[in-house]
Specification:
By secondary structure, this protein is mainly β. The protein contains 4 helices and 27 strands.
Length: about 425
């Protein structure tokens, strides 16, 4: 077992810890060494973590494909700007080769790579629900398709020359088709269960409505009331038949979507039932940025996601700042929490490794690490004196070292299984 590039030195009597006691091996050290076998009784840090997770230490769940087998050492702490993580500086790309990177990226996107490393055509990640309008030779809107991944539905409105409308709603349960007359009232209804081809007639909801109006400016508005789904939908199209906006409301609130002319990006604004701003998302093919607000309209969290990274910057309930980043390809992640009292919590996680460090305002810290080869625990006081415990999983050897800074002094203790 190698510990950095340190020099072993004697333990002079004048080297003392902050309490004035010499840094000798104590029964407490031996107890910690034994407890390291199962992590059940390690020394507890002095930091009170109740503010972060109702009495339990904070955790960061890694969204990792369990089939990936990447062994990575945790990334070093990013201290350039407390609470802010730069993915390019934080995630270590050296843990996977370029070929591995692009192969995993391709597999995640549903593409294939041949023996020469060529990829099939890339389908960009879609972070918004598309809506599309179609017009006839006379310029009138004939069909509008709208998807809503929030409730897992796809709605289609087809308008004939007499102004009759057929509304089709596809969901996980099946397909509902309701025909409306030119007056907007329902005429008939059928429902086809998912996996079936039998359209079963049903009695339409008397209060369902669909109206289509075209203004003097050439713009078209479709308004739909779905009584069974308890939703109201309003879709607006420009004079050329392009969908410009869509709003979907229910008893819980409303989501308003503004579509850009390119048809490849949109802005979502979400309101609660009292029309208070809850979230705003700017989305396009390949990336999204979401701002989340509290009940008083104050910005609470910002998320950014693209095809490689997911980053989150948030303010916790007690005012502490949290920032995290996930490398979606390698599975590595890092989270930093800066508490109001000056405590800093850092969590590094990978598919096969994790490290947690809690640094107190005086500079002392505790750190636990776990990887396929070993698990370890390190404690350091404010004066730089540290004790390090480690357990090698394959050999079963447990050992401890002490030191200050880069200096290591003895005696260390080692436990070898019989």
């Amino acid at each position: 077992m190698v510990v950095g590039t340190t020099q072993r030195i004697d333990h002079p009597a004048e080297k003392q810890n902050s309490s004035g006691a010499h840094q000798d091996v104590t029964p407490a050290h031996k107890e910690a060494l034994n407890a390291l076998q199962d992590y059940s009784n390690l020394p507890k840090p002095k930091t009170d973590l109740s503010a972060f997770d109702q009495g339990s230490p904070p955790t960061f769940q890694n969204a990792v494909d369990t089939k990936r087998q990447v062994t990575a050492e945790p990334a070093a702490a990013d201290t350039s700007e407390p609470g802010v993580i730069d993915p390019g500086k934080t995630i270590d790309p050296s843990v996977i080769t370029p070929d591995d990177y692009f192969r995993r990226k391709a597999l995640r996107e549903g593409r294939e790579m041949d023996d020469q490393g060529n990829l099939t055509a890339e389908e960009p990640l879609q972070f918004f629900d598309p809506a599309k309008g179609e017009t006839g030779p006379d310029g009138r809107v004939k069909k509008v398709t709208s998807e809503d991944t929030n409730n897992g539905t796809k709605s289609t409105f087809e308008i004939d020359e007499q102004g009759n409308v057929t509304r089709t709603i596809e969901s996980n349960d099946g397909t509902e088709v309701v025909k409306f007359g030119a007056d907007g009232r329902p005429v008939s209804k059928t429902f086809t269960e998912k996996g079936s081809t039998d359209a079963v007639p049903e009695t339409p909801e008397a209060n369902d409505r669909v109206t289509v109006t075209k203004g003097a400016d050439g713009k078209t508005t479709i308004e739909s009331t779905d009584t069974a789904g308890d939703t109201n939908t309003k879709i607006e199209l420009d004079k050329d038949g392009h969908v410009t906006s869509r709003s979907v409301s229910d008893p819980e609130g409303e989501i308003v979507t503004q579509f850009n002319p390119d048809g490849k990006s949109a802005t979502y604004t979400e309101y609660d039932k009292d029309h208070r701003l809850q979230a705003k998302t700017v989305a396009s093919e390949g990336q999204r940025t979401t701002e989340i607000y509290d009940g008083n309209g104050k910005l609470d969290k910002v998320e950014h996601e693209d095809d490689e990274y997911l980053t989150v910057d948030a303010t916790l309930k007690d005012g502490s700042k949290m920032s995290s980043v996930l490398d979606k390809v390698s599975g590595q992640s890092k989270t930093i929490i800066n508490a109001k009292d000056g405590t800093r919590i850092e969590l590094d996680e990978g598919p096969n490794s994790s490290t947690t460090r809690i640094t107190n305002p005086d500079g002392s810290f505790t750190e636990t690490s776990d990887n396929p080869q070993e698990k370890s625990y390190k404690v350091q006081d404010k004066d730089g004196y540290w004790t390090w415990y480690a357990y090698e999983k394959q050999s079963g050897v447990a050992s401890t070292l002490q030191g200050r800074g880069n200096d290591v002094y003895g005696p260390g203790i080692e436990s070898v299984p019989i």
